[in-house]
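Sequence design from tokenized structure. All designs in this work follow the same two-part layout: the structure record, then the generated sequence. An example of the structure record is given first.
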């Protein structure tokens, strides 16, 4: 029996500022922890809070075509193939940094070292100003688009794999992220944007966000885990 695939999910945010728009990545992990019945614990060596456990996802049934029968064959060998797997098992660690957003990478690097995760095992969850509130979108390639938490995360993982040029490029190009839309304020003034992301969600926004994080997000993550089982690697 093969060992479960190990993954590290990281929710970006500012430690000590719960419920703000910039902390929706951490809120996403709280939703997943509740869905999977994981329990949070403080981890000093990880520089964050961690919750971990086993997640099993059902795989779609694959019908195999029967090989054609050769009428001239007198003794056809009987080949018994093992049935295809019906489920995939993951050992998942959730981590919320005890840092400010622009240095979240410190916690990611510490957790990856302590828990022995490679960069390709890491999935980041973070807020996205460029998408409507509640819109979920996976991203693999591309820049951090000005998100300081993502910049810190990439920098931390890149440092961990700097011994290998191949892994370095992989970390930069194949870094899987879940972007969670929070809308953009009408003003593009940097001070106004900073004030917006550090503010609490309005009550009407909270209702939509709750549906997104506690219903849509677990389903979307499950789809990705099923796809990963079929593909064998991230993203």
């Amino acid at each position: 029996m093969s060992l479960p695939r190990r993954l590290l999910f990281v929710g970006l945010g500012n430690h000590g500022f719960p419920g703000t728009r910039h902390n929706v990545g951490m809120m996403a992990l709280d939703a997943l922890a509740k869905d999977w019945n994981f329990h949070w614990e403080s981890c000093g060596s990880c520089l964050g809070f961690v919750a971990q456990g086993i997640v099993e996802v059902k795989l779609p049934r694959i019908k195999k075509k029967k090989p054609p029968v050769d009428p001239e064959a007198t003794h056809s060998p009987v080949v018994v193939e093992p049935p295809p797997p019906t489920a995939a098992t993951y050992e998942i660690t959730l981590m919320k940094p005890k840092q400010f957003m622009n240095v979240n990478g410190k916690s990611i690097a510490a957790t990856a070292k302590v828990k022995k995760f490679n960069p390709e095992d890491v999935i980041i969850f973070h807020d996205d100003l460029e998408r409507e509130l509640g819109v979920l979108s996976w991203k693999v390639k591309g820049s951090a688009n000005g998100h300081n938490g993502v910049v810190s995360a990439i920098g931390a993982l890149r440092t961990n794999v700097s011994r290998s040029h191949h892994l370095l490029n992989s970390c930069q190009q194949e870094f899987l992220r879940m972007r969670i839309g929070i809308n953009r304020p009408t003003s593009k003034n940097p001070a106004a944007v900073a004030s917006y992301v550090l503010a609490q969600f309005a009550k009407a926004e909270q209702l939509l966000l709750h549906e997104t994080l506690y219903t849509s997000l677990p389903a979307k993550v499950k789809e990705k885990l099923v796809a990963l089982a079929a593909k064998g690697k991230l993203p």
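The beta strands are 5-11, 41-43, 48-58, 87-97, 122-128, 136-139, 176-181. We note this feature because it recurs in several other targets discussed in the main text.
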